[in-house]
Amino acid sequence: MADLQLIAIDVGNSRTRVAAVQGTSVSDPISLSNGDLGAVTQAVLSQRESLPEANPRPIVMASVNDGFADQLASALADQLSEEVYRVGGDLPIPVQCDLAPETITGVDRLLNAAAAFDVLKQACIVVDAGTAVTVDFVDGEGIFHGGAIAPGGRMQLRSLHEYTEALPDLEFTVPEAEAFGRSTAQAMLKGVHFGIQGLVRILAEHYADHYGAYPTVVATGGDAETLFRGDELIDRIVPDLTLQGIAVAARHAMAATSGDETGD
Questions:
Q1: CA dist., res. 55 & res. 175, Å (int)
Q2: Pairing between strand 236-237 and 132-138?
Q3: Which CATH architecture has domain 96-242?
Q4: Contact between residue 160 and residue 188 where contact means Cβ atoms under 8 Å apart
Q5: Pairing with 261, which of 41, 54, 175, 252 sits 20 to 30 Å away (CA)?
Q6: What is d(CA 152, CA 254) in angstroms, rounded to the nearest whole number?
Q7: Residues with catalytic roles
């Protein structure tokens, strides 16, 4: 669907990512802190100006932080006449789920699943390493089965600092290559870094045992490169997977409107 063009906005817990979408291409995203509403608003407007004016340039937003998303939508409404479309409300997420009744799943997890399956067309495990770490399973029919949620690297380090007397406040980085953490900081980084890697590895093995085959493992999120660069378990690192999922949702919505239910 080459005619698709839009601005995709992924509102996370602490940061918002904005990208222009043309056809199947997603531009390099702009990532900004949710603490600066004005900067995020200007990023959306500048990305929108990068798209040709000849076609509609809708703004499509997905959010796990509805408070900031509402503020951003209001700020954009003051600047533009177009409506801001919300994924999960105005646009359905094109993924089936096999979950417990009444379960409310984060829109980012579902969009990641939709985007990964849209490309792979096979069973996959999707790891999102951000404020939280999620490890989810999508089967060979594209059905989302849920998975696991754990604190992310920065959250773990912040908790270690805040709930102890002596442990320092650290940025989440790759620990030194030496086997042992010979300083307090390195011990903390190694504990968090390898703890998350171990979590993902054990869950992937559980999912593979249940499924009867080892699925492709895709990682995304702001800490994916820090955690998984060079990790043989991870088949692909796709930093903008949620933004791609927004584009997939928009493409399916357009297809449904035009009567082409396949979305191709």
A1: 48
A2: unpaired
A3: 2-Layer Sandwich (3.30)
A4: yes
A5: 54
A6: 35
A7: 108
Q: Closest Cα to residue 86, out of 109, 70, 103, 106?
A: 70
Q: Which residues pair with 213 in a beta bridge?
A: none
Q: Which residues pair with 127 in a beta bridge?
A: 135, 219
- pLDDT tens-digit readout, 165-187: 999 999 999 999 999 999 999 99
Q: 110: which 2 tokens?
A: 């579902």
The third-level CATH classification (topology) of the domain covering 5-86 is Nucleotidyltransferase; domain 5 (3.30.420)
Residues 139, 186: Cα–Cα separation, whole Å: 38
What is the spatial distance between Cα 162 and Cα 197, in angstroms, rounded to a whole number?
A: 23
> Does the structure show a pLDDT above 90 at 3?
no
What's the whole-model pTM score? 0.91
- Domain positions in the chain: 5-86, 96-242
Any idea what DSSP says for residue 174?
P
Handedness of CA 20, 26, 27, 28 (dihedral sign): positive
Nearest-5° Cα angle at 129, 123 to 130? 140
Q: How far apart are CA 53 and CA 110, in angstroms?
A: 31
What gap in Å lies between CA 256 and CA 258, rounded to an integer?
5
Check for a shared fold between 5-86 and 96-242.
yes
Residue 101 CA to residue 93 CA, distance in Å, equals 18
User: Sorting pLDDT into bands at 50, 70 and 90, what band is 256?
Assistant: confident
State the pLDDT confidence band at 260, using cuts at 50, 70 and 90: low
